[in-house]
From TrEMBL:
SMART domains associated with the record: Zn_pept
Leader sequence segment: 1-18
Protein name as catalogued: Carboxypeptidase B
Keyword Protease annotated: yes
UniProt organism field: Hyalella azteca (Amphipod)
Keywords recorded for this protein, A-Z: Carboxypeptidase, Hydrolase, Metal-binding, Metalloprotease, Protease, Signal, Zinc
Length: 429
């Protein structure tokens, strides 16, 4: 035993992993939660039945390819496995205890952190979005404020509203570069809206959105004649809750009619086909809320997006699954201008493949029988008539899902920058 302890110390250093209060809380919350991979032809039918029996079942990604992963709480394990046993689906438990899995992940991240580049983002300044770790909401705010004060001619930071718990929802407007601003006759050829962080646990989304914002401001090229509107962190309460208390939190932090089940899925709360593909059960991960735009976050986003002139392109970044999704999410009916949406989506996917070798599928938002209505992409397309509207699911393809290593921040950002540039070039042809 003594020898084992000595060997352990030699390998991992003298201090054991000192978990933060947030980590301890999240380990406790997720103790005994399983992640199960399921595949087979009857997946769609199975999932809709399973969700009826177990409303709190957490479907982790889309399943148009006949495979998905689900998170099951300890109280539902027996019921879920009994349903699986009576199905003809293939299934295996990928993660037996999410709490243990996270503990090991955090330890690995902590050890890797010491070997990484020194980066700063604190009271002394925040010159660039971090690549070595996922930023706190406060660090994101600091970065956006520094960016605005260092680039007063092009960058304007506005709070478009407050979250349920009173945090600011920040929008960064990047105007066309100086040469165009001085020419008052020349209007911008169009606007681009980029939304990040609508779902709390998808940390790579706000991270990639900030890196894209940084690139659009600091490496201005031929696409800088456009107006860009960035909302890098659309669900700040949920994000902070997923950092400090429950790593798998998805929704906002609204209080619902059920004291034991909080939060509304902000990507089911938009006012177009509200409720067609969403749950009315507050305990569901896809709870749509009591009414369309019931939530302060979606009201702020939709009000601000409505005011944008000549909106040509809307992208909302999510994870995971590596897919460029185009409308509709509420129906399987093909959209009229499918061809041009697919062409633009392929431009993103081809560029990502060229830059990092990662493959992104291009498909419509509704996968199989799984409809997602009341989402940003359908609303921007239908209500605002944005010619191009996409949900982009970032890394990874399922290996680690939301628990994505910080070492993937840099490569994902490069994929996003190259992909968005190629997409914009394609739609301007
Ligand atoms: Zn999402």
């Amino acid at each position: 035993m003594k020898m084992f302890v000595l060997m352990w110390l030699a390998c991992f250093g003298s201090a054991s992993h000192a978990a933060t209060v947030g980590q301890v809380l999240t380990y406790r919350k997720l103790q005994g939660h399983q992640i199960v991979r399921i595949s087979g032809d009857s997946l769609d039918t199975f999932l809709s039945e399973a969700l009826k029996a177990i409303p709190s079942l957490d479907i982790l990604h889309r399943h148009s390819v006949g495979e998905t992963r689900a998170r099951v709480a300890p109280t539902d394990k027996e019921a879920f496995h009994s349903l699986l046993a009576h199905s003809d689906l293939e299934h295996d438990v990928e993660v037996e205890d999410l709490s243990e899995y996270l503990r090991a992940h955090d330890l690995k991240q902590q050890r890797a952190a010491s070997a990484r580049l020194e980066e700063t983002c604190d009271e002394s300044g925040c010159p660039a979005p971090l690549k070595s770790s996922y930023m706190t909401f406060e660090q994101m705010e600091r970065y956006m404020m520094d960016l605005a004060s260092n680039n007063p001619a092009r960058v304007q930071l506005t709070s478009i509203g407050k979250s349920f718990e009173g945090r600011d929802i920040w929008m960064v407007h990047v105007s066309p570069d100086g040469s165009r601003i001085s020419d008052s006759d020349s209007a911008s050829p169009g606007s681009v809206w980029i939304e990040g962080g609508l779902h709390a646990r998808e940390w790579i989304s706000p991270s990639s959105t900030l890196h894209l914002l940084h690139e659009r401001v600091t490496a201005c090229d031929s696409q800088c004649d456009l107006d860009y509107y960035f909302v890098p962190i659309a669900n700040p309460d949920g994000y902070e809750y997923s950092r400090t208390t429950d790593r798998m939190w998805r929704k906002n932090r609204a209080v619902t009619t059920r004291s034991d089940c909080g939060g509304v899925d902000l990507n089911r709360n938009w006012d177009y086909k509200f409720g067609v593909g969403a749950s009315s059960d507050p305990c569901s991960e896809t709870y749509m809320g009591p009414a369309a735009f019931s939530e302060p976050e979606t009201r702020a986003l939709s009000n601000a997006m409505s005011k944008v002139d000549n909106l040509k392109l809307m992208i909302t970044f999510h994870s995971f699954g590596q897919a460029v999704l185009y409308p509709w999410g509420w129906t399987n009916e093909p959209i009229e201008d499918k061809e041009q949406l697919v062409r633009a989506g392929n431009a993103f996917a081809d560029a990502a493949m060229r830059i990092t070798g990662k493959s992104y599928a291009v498909e419509n938002s509704a996968g199989g029988l799984y409809f997602a209505s009341g989402a940003t992409d359908d609303w921007a397309k239908k209500v605002l008539n944005a010619p191009y509207s996409f949900t982009i699911e970032l890394r990874d393809s399922g290996m680690n899902g939301f628990i994505l290593d910080a070492s993937e921040i840099g490569p994902t950002a490069r994929e996003v920058v190259a992909g968005v540039s190629a997409l914009i070039s394609e739609i301007r042809k």
